[in-house]
Design goal:
Structural class: alpha+beta
Number of strands: 9
Largest sheet: 7 strands, mixed
Strand order of the largest sheet: 2-1-9-8-7-6-3
Shape: globular
Helix content: 25-40%
Number of helices: 5
């Protein structure tokens, strides 16, 4: 073998090893990311989940306390997500009172909804453009909602909540689905099946608003 070709062969071999490692690491990261996304099966009783979603949207937009609270289970309560600063937080309430919003400085908004409910991928909000990538009324039943778990995990790591509290939130959030009604304003909530019936479990007042 020509002695001049040896350094070239060595360089090629090193390049091959680096390329292989990079490809392997990328595949590992993609696999990890996919495992971090909680998946779910489409509910069998589509009529039940559709009914509670549309009924709550109507009750919320008409600000009817009685009809909205009929869709909140007294044992589960309603977890309201909001953003008091840079980090989201949540508060559990027994019921909703449209005259007394959570948080107090952020009134419950109402608007006209002419959209029919669709089961498909949810919209996303771009804070730079200050707009949704699509408008309408959507529920994604292919992915389990995990917003409460994300907040509780952050609090576990940085704000000192204990293992028991984190495990409780994770258990409570199992089997929940996220709903988005996007227009000029938005309405975002989660539904969960409990004791054979569907209920509204979370009201998200943080996402879709980019003020810290």
């Amino acid at each position: 073998m020509n002695m001049k070709s040896i350094p070239i062969l060595i360089c090629c071999y090193i390049f091959f090893l680096l390329a292989s490692c990079t490809s392997s690491n990328k595949k590992s990261e993609e696999t990890k990311d996919s495992l971090d996304i909680p998946t779910a099966s489409f509910p069998d009783d589509t009529q039940g989940i559709s009914e509670v979603i549309t009924r709550f949207a109507r009750a919320y937009l008409s600000q009817d306390n009685e009809k909205a609270n009929a869709l909140i289970h007294p044992d589960l309560g309603l977890y309201v997500i909001y953003r008091p600063g840079a980090q989201d937080t949540y508060e559990r309430v027994d019921s909703i009172d449209f005259a007394k919003p959570v948080p107090e400085h952020f009134p419950y908004t109402t608007f006209e909804n002419g959209y029919a409910l669709n089961f498909e991928e949810l919209p996303s909000f771009d804070c730079g453009m200050e707009k949704w990538n699509k408008l309408g009324f959507f529920c994604d039943t292919t992915v389990q909602a995990n917003e409460l778990t994300a907040i509780a995990t952050f609090n576990y790591e940085f704000n000192g909540i204990n293992d028991t509290d984190l495990a409780e939130v994770k258990q409570l959030e199992k089997g929940t689905f996220r709903v988005m009604l996007t227009k000029d304003e938005n309405l975002i909530f989660h539904v969960k099946k409990h004791q054979g019936n569907w209920y509204v479990f979370v009201l998200d007042r943080a996402y879709g608003w980019c003020d810290a």
